[in-house]
Structures are given as structure tokens and as C-alpha cells.
Amino acid sequence: MLLVISYDVNTTEPAGEKRLRKVARFCEKYGVRVQNSVFELEVDPAMEAAVHCGLEKLIDKRKDSVRFYRLGSNWNNKVESIGRKQMISFGKDLIL
């Protein structure tokens, strides 16, 4: 399943800047950055739960937000990209 994660971490104080770096590093372990605060991840249900739990521990729920968009397994027709960032492959084989 393709999972899109976007986040907004309040960086008006040094602790927020530290949380922002931690959230970004955490997301980089599981997926690909497609914009500054947006990641695409190909996950199974167990990995999705681990990612959700991990991010919940990293953020300050009173100041930050994380959004999860579940695009399902048949996501290829639901995602379009324009500009310098190309579509993410996730290692799928192309058969011609």
C-alpha cells in the first residue's frame, strides 16, 4: 500500500527544530521524500502501524501535526507528478 505522510512541526523554538530533524530522519528510514515535509512509503499493515506509533512518539501533539494518506495498493493511477521530482518506483519490475 502507498502511504503518503505530510507533517508540520512548529519550529519557533529550538526543541521544535530538533523534533523536525527527528521526524524527517525517521521518515527517511521508511520511504522517499517527495517534498520538504512530504514522504511516500510503500508499507504493509504492520509497517504502517510502526510508522504511526514512531511518529506519534516524536511529535508534540499540542504544537505539531502529521497527516497520513492511504492510497492503497492500486495507487499508480492516483498519483501524478509535474516538475523536477519524478515518480517513485519502489522497485517494481517493468515488463515490456
From TrEMBL:
Q: Which domain of life is it from?
A: Bacteria
Kindly list any coiled-coil regions of this protein. Answer: none
Does Metal-binding appear among the keywords? yes
Q: Which cofactor does it need?
A: Mg(2+)
Enzyme Commission code(s) on record: 3.1.-.-
Q: Which enzyme type, at the first EC level?
A: hydrolase
BP terms from Gene Ontology? defense response to virus; maintenance of CRISPR repeat elements
- One GO molecular-function annotation for this sequence? RNA endonuclease activity
Binding residues for Mg(2+): D8
Recorded hits in Pfam families, A to Z, give: CRISPR_Cas2 (PF09827)
Q: Which keywords describe this protein according to UniProt?
A: Antiviral defense, Endonuclease, Hydrolase, Magnesium, Metal-binding, Nuclease
Family, per the entry?
A: Belongs to the CRISPR-associated endoribonuclease Cas2 protein family.
Q: What does this protein do?
A: CRISPR (clustered regularly interspaced short palindromic repeat), is an adaptive immune system that provides protection against mobile genetic elements (viruses, transposable elements and conjugative plasmids). CRISPR clusters contain sequences complementary to antecedent mobile elements and target invading nucleic acids. CRISPR clusters are transcribed and processed into CRISPR RNA (crRNA). Functions as a ssRNA-specific endoribonuclease. Involved in the integration of spacer DNA into the CRISPR cassette.
Q: How does it assemble?
A: Homodimer, forms a heterotetramer with a Cas1 homodimer.
**What name is this protein filed under?**
CRISPR-associated endoribonuclease Cas2
